[in-house]
Amino acid sequence: MNLCNCGSSEILHGKHRVCDACKTASQRERVKRYRRTHPEKSSVQATAQNHRMRMRQRETGMAINALLARDSVVGGEPFILDRGWTVKFCVPFSAAASKNNMHRHKRYGVYKNSATTSFENELILEARAAIKGRTIFQNKLWIDLFVQKPHHRGDAINVIDVVCDAIKRAVDLDDRWFCINQIDWEIAKQDPQIYIGISQRDTFDALVCSSCGQIQPLDYFTGNRSATKPSAKNKSRICKDCRQGNIEGCRVKLLGVE
Fold first, then answer.
1. What is the pLDDT of residues 28-44, one digit of tens each?
2. What is the CA radius of gyration of the chain?
3. Separation of alpha carbons 168 and 5, rounded Å
4. Side-by-side strand order, sheet with 141-149
5. Domains of the chain by start residue, with CATH
6. pTM, whole model, 2 decimals?
7. Helix (H, G, I), strand (E, B) or coil at 110
8. One-character DSSP codes across 202-223
9. Digit-coded pLDDT (tens) for 95-111
10. For the packed helices 247-255 and 43-68, what is the interaxial angle rounded to 10 degrees?
């Protein structure tokens, strides 16, 4: 039979070495010691400190974002060659692929065209078959389009919306990550097709910093340490560079100059 050192008659069971009264007193003493060494800040002080921290992170993010700015449209990443993976497939051309034919106005409202739905379902099946066994990362997804039109009355660029909506459902990736690498067209009088290429250059999961706009790997963001697997869902939206005010480090990394 185990008894507490305080002389209480309470019988202790299992691994317990102190009674409930001694345990409560010990916890209160521990809280008192912590409060003596860690004075509590008022809500006004805490709010002001958080505001200063957010303003500092915002200024750092604006400075880093200025380093990322491109001089012109052609200063971007067109016609990328160094791709981590690429898949290509095609579907028969259909006028329902155009966004101009996506909806129909009826008596009781606006409805999605059934032909567009059928085209999207066919494209989803082809896309899933093409990417079968391949890992889709939360990162930029590049799309190439080559549209064969039976005549010159339609706009090839109008197929982007319908195609991207279908690819979004096929790869299970939000279309905010989508980029159009190139789009081209030609007139094909017999058996016109829509050729689609999907590729990713960076093969790692990433997030976009809400402060500076950099696309960084998940380990650049703080998160829930108790999480068993790193995930974008339990990560902060501010990268380490903005939290630490590392403008010069970003200058060296991005521009290669000190």
1. 888 888 878 876 666 66
2. 29
3. 66
4. 85-92, 193-200, 141-149, 178-187
5. 79-200 (3.30.1330.70), 206-255 (no CATH)
6. 0.70
7. strand
8. --S-EEE-TTT--EEEGGGEEE
9. 999 988 888 777 778 88
10. 20
